[in-house]
Amino acid sequence: MATDFDAEATGWDTPEKVDRARVLAAEIVRRVPVRQEWTALDVGAGTGLLGRELGHHVRRVVLTDTSAGMLDAARAATADDPGRYVTRRIDLTRDPLGERVDLVVSAMALHHIPDTGAILAAIRDALNPGGWVALADLDADPKNHFHSDDHDGHRGIDRDDLGRRLRDLGFEDVTAETGTRIRKTKHDVEREFTVFLVTGHLPGDAAPRG
């Protein structure tokens, strides 16, 4: 799968995706008490569209992905601010991040990760006490109207099930709302799809850290 995304990296940042990242970043900042002193982690960051938008609101952003091509594009896009952005090619379902962060975000990545339970546990383990999650993804799409017919990932994500999983992992104040919408045509039929945003935090004090 990483190879497929490598091939798509150079043309990934379409105006529609850039706009979607801006909308989701604004929703995250509205729902999460983001602090300028925080470090954020963008899981499945791709070219870093969401993390780059959030970079205006935090001290540092770690952009992670399994696709070398996507991360090459992310590094090029953030080259003028290397102190704020760092890229890491890592599969968090297998290897720990190696540091703690205050906020974990993700946009349209969870449904591409085979082991959802493993990535959610990795997200929890990467967070400081009181740390927040803000996970955006495609709502459940059981008939696979959104992706190509050979799509081998999840057919969207059930937002209520994701919320329950986060609560089971110890997250508090978990909420799920629609973050944005996408219009897409498949087999000559245009449909509108909803993208949810689930937020919540671990117990503890998300105090500023130097």
Automatic annotation (TrEMBL):
Going by the UniProt record, its keywords in alphabetical order are:
Transferase
Give coiled-coil spans as residue ranges.
none
Span of domain Methyltransferase type: 41-133
Top-level division of the source organism's lineage:
Bacteria
InterPro entries this protein is in? Methyltransf_12 (IPR013217), SAM-dependent_MTases_sf (IPR029063)
* GO molecular function terms listed in the Swiss-Prot or TrEMBL record: transferase activity
Which Gene3D superfamilies does the entry mention?
Vaccinia Virus protein VP39 (3.40.50.150)
**Pfam families membership:** Methyltransf_12
Q: Enumerate the PANTHER family for this protein.
A: PUTATIVE (AFU_ORTHOLOGUE AFUA_2G14390)-RELATED (PTHR43861:SF3), TRANS-ACONITATE 2-METHYLTRANSFERASE-RELATED (PTHR43861)
Name recorded for this polypeptide: Methyltransferase type 12 domain-containing protein
Give the originating organism: Mobilicoccus pelagius NBRC 104925
